[in-house]
Structures are given as C-alpha cells and as structure tokens.
Fold each of these.
Amino acid sequence: MTKPRLSICIATYNRAGYIGETLDSIIPQLDDDVELLVVDGASTDNTEDIVRKFAQKESRIRYVRLSAKGGVDLDYDKSVELARGEFCWFFTDDDLLKPGAVAAVKGAIKKGYDLVVVNAEVRDRELSVILGRRRIVMQDNKEYAPNGMEQLFIDALDYLSFIGGVVIRRSIWLSRERAPYFGTEFVHVGVIFQKPLTASALIIAEPYIIIRFGNAQWTPLSFDIWMFKWPKLVWSFNHISKEAKLSVTRREPWRNFKPLILQRSLGGYNIQSYRQFFSTMRVFILWKFCAWLIACFPRNIIVRFHYLYSRIKGPESRASFDNHFAEPRK
C-alpha cells in the first residue's frame, strides 16, 4: 500500500457492541489514499476480535492493541504517532460516517488547509430519531485564515468538544504541545487553539457524521468535565478574547443553578458530586444550600420535567437544552 493522504484514527475501548457498525460505515469509502487505524486501549471485551476480523478482510485497516488504557487524550495522540497519512481524522468508535464523507474531506485537504472540521447530525442512541440536524448551524462551508482563529473559536468550539469532527495536518499536531492537555479530555482543542495555525481552516457545513447521543462512557465524570475541566481549558487561551470565551462557557459555570439542574437530570450531579466539589468550598451559605438541595432532589422528577420540556418544544429542543450533545469518547 502506498503512503496514504488521510488516516482515519479511531481510539477505542470496550466498544464491541458498536464498533462493527462504525467500521461498516467507513470501509466502503476507503481507497488507496486512505487508511483506517484503530488503536485499542486494552479492551477487556471482544472489541479486538471484531476489529481483527475486519482487518483480515480489508488491508487498509490497521489494528494496534496497547498494553494499557491511556485515556482519550493519550490514545488519540498515540494514533497520530502511528498514523501514516499526511492528515489525521480523529473519528469515534460508536458513531457513523455518511456516504460521501471521505470524498468531501479529501477534496478539502487537497486545497491546503491545516484543519478541516466536519459537521454532524445528532441522533438518539438507537439512531432512529434525529435530535439535531446540524451541530454547527451553518448552510455553507466557511473558511478561516490563520488570523481568524478567534472567529473559528466562536463558531465551532462548542461543537469541537466532540473530537470526531476534527481533521488535522499530522505535522501540525506533532509540532505542538500536547502533554499539557493530557487529562483534560480535549487534547485536540488544546492542540488546535494554543496558537494560530500556519494555514487556513475550513468548516464543512454538510453533516457527514451521525453522532450517537447518550452513549458516552464517561457519564460519571461529566460533572467534573463540564463544570471544571472544559471551562479551565477554554479560559486558558490567552490570545482569545474574554468575549469569545464567554460565548462558549462561563469561567465557573457551576455557580449558576441551571447547569447544576441539567447535570442532575443527566445523572452527572448527585450528593457524591456535591461532597467532592462543594462541601468544603468557601461560597455563600445560601448558594451551598441550594446546590445541596439540587443534589438531593429526586432525579426522576427532574428527568420528567426535562422530558416534558422536550415534548412541548419538539424533538430538536434537546439540542438547545443540552449545550453539549457531542461527548468525548473513551
């Protein structure tokens, strides 16, 4: 096989129930310019058996099993090191590619962009109901010059909490700081926005990805991620304005009760979370009491209100209610 132009890099862990469907959506789009690299963080289920069967039939699939699970940041970084392509597409292990996705990306990278962001639609866990038709509400492709990174930040950062839409030039990735972002769950965001790119970036408006919502493996960690890790990362970019950062998240979103209620509904916030993050924190007593009350409030009642809200507003209302449809996968 000649050196590919594009490496589709999947970091996976214990996804035997889904990864076969993911690979089925990608394989028909492979050609001699595209390889599919699966890096397995030492799965304990039969993920390895499933991927190896695909690899036996398709020479453009490479499977690498790591000795231990490194986590989403380390394992995707490892996939770039192992990739052979000029560009790396960080794809997820339970989502799907629509027909024409690879061709669209290949067409874009031929134009010299450093970064291509591929839009997505969101469906429920069974992929039967469309919850959001375009995660980035944009009808036409949009290009960003290297001095336009702040506008890219505003337009796309919320979506880029989902790693599966990122296609980046491999040499750019390898030349940038990565270690400081290990453990954030969003190493790709740190790599992209730590400084301006050397060439332009592109958002492909057509939703070529189908995201399987509600299937993340890190739900028990979601409160820490969205209330602390994500805001800390967003606010760490000194060259991005305060206004741009506020368009994505507050510096301390946990101080607002609406995110606490949402996290309680989604199962990320409970009395254990309260004890871990707030019980010893020096804040107003009234605020702490309300945070405790939300943590103790019966989740099933909040979920019912959430459900009724979605029913009243329509199937796409969930997109506006939950600001983070697309979750990092591991």
Amino acid sequence: MGPEKRVNPLPPLPREDLEDVFRQVGDAWEKLRGRNVFISGASGFFGSWLLDTLLFSADRRQLGTKAWALTRDADRFRLRLPHLAGHPAVELVGGGVEQFVFPKEKMAYVIHSLVPDPGMPLPEMEKWFEMGTRRLLELAARDRSEGFLLCSTGAVYQPQNRPLSEEDPLIPLDSPLTYGRIRRQVEDQCLAVCGKEGIPLKIARGFAFAGPRLPENAGFALADFLRDAKEGRSIRVKGTGEPTRSYLYAADMAVWLWKIFLNPLGNGIFNVGSPEGVRIIEVAEMITTLTHTEFQILGQPESGASQNTHYVPITKKAFSQLEVTLSRSLLELLHASIHSSQKVI
C-alpha cells in the first residue's frame, strides 16, 4: 500500500450562511430542544451542512441538543472537520453503516444522508445502501424516534424531458440496475418500515447544488468547471452541454432540509432544488466570461442523472408548504465563488 493521502481540514461554513439558516428555520429549532439527533453521512455534503447548522443554531438557542455523527473513519473526520469533531455536543460513531454500534442513549431523530464512495460498483452499492438503511431504520425503531429524514435524490424519477414534480413516475423496480433505481429502493425500504413502526418519515429529493463543500471530481459539472477555471485550464464540457440543470445554494438547501424535517405537517416527500433551469453549456459560458478562460465540448457519453436532458425540479410544494426562498441566483453564486477569497463552490 502507498502512503495515505493528506487530509486537508475544511474551514467552517461562512458565518452569514449559518446566520441565514438559523434565522429562516426560526422557532422550528425548538423541536430539537434537549433531543438527541443521529446523523449518518456526517462528513458528506448534506450531512456536514446539517451538522454544522444544527450545532450553530443549538448553541445560539441553548437547546442542549446532542448530535451523534456516523462516519466511516472517525480519525479522518477529526482531521477533515476538526471544528465539528471537537464540538462538545458531538459524539463520533465510527465504522461502517452496515454494523455500527447503537448509542446507549435514545435517538429522538435519525437523519439518513448516506453517500457512496465515488466509483463504487452498482451491485456493491445496492447491497451497501440496503444494509445501511436497514441498520438506521432499526435504530429509529428501537428508540421509537420522533422523526426520520431520508436525503434522497431526483435521480429516482423516470426522465420526462421537462421539470419533475413529486407526483411524476419513479424508475421501475424491474428496470436495469442504476443509481436511480437503487435510491428508489431505499425510499421504498424507508416507507415500508416507517409505516409499519409508526415513525414519521420525510423524504427530501435533492437535485443539483452549489456552495461550500460540494466535492470536486465527483461528477458535479459546476464544481469541476470552477476548479478548471481557477487553475487556468480550459473548461471541459462532457457530452454536448445541452442538458438542462438548476443549482440551489447550499445554505438554501440546509434551510429546506430542516424545514422539511421539522415541519409539523404529516409525512411528506419534497423536491429540493432550484426551479430555475439552465443548460450546462450556458453555465460554462458564464464561467468563461467571468474568468476570461475558454471551454471545449468533449462530446463524451454521460452517465447517471446527467443522462436526463432536463434535470430540474418543480418546487411548488416546498414553496407553498415550507415558505422557502432562493437566496442567490446562479450568476451571483458564480461571481461570489470566483471573486471571493473564501471558496464558495
């Protein structure tokens, strides 16, 4: 085995983003007063935003909330997110999600925000998601948890070549094995167990995002475009660049997720994403204009959700029931990322 890759610590989230999430979620934070929250995937994009905003808001309101953060490698988590690992309200739970040791304490809320390792083969991913989901549901059932949040994905929908609503058809269970079918199976698994055990379930189907901690080299075109531009390289557009996407800022994402989870309404499924669609080639053009770089279209085949020509959510349900907003346009996001000293995307 070669030497281990150096782990660079990530900075805390921007103060203005933490303040914004705290303010917009508002009195709903009180549901977590004195409660224990279990967060899986705590070092990932969704998980770390949820953990960071939870700790900030709990400190501001003096809620006395404690968070159990599940991570594959606790030592790596401490190196990557030291400000979270060292917080007095955080307990790190190491080991795989398939067999982690249950905390002795009762978990009032469980958050399922697992993400697979890049490049994990689909059959292995299917088994990993099934076993990990089962373990998290067993924890929630043991503690008769007051809420279970599943961070799912818009990849569960069948492509429609138009914006997608929560009522649109999902990928069939008898279709070829894909990432979207696996995530649809996870939703069905949660619906079945939570329904049987009487655990309130919320499902948040995430689309595309922008903001701090969005991983590079993980198939997220926006993050890769900005990385290439900042390093002085030509932006490389895979495929034709014609598919349409939309990008929700990460602080908005955190607000939406917390409002979905803590909303007093019954069980529900919500799309999470910006309804403002833009073609990928237009994103590349915007970045090249701002950075005075060039882009090239590679025309290579695309995979996963990127095969959908129109991967944009309809978010009428979230806007009407949760009173959420869009804090930044895509152009504002790009401008902030390029011209700010702090990495915004």
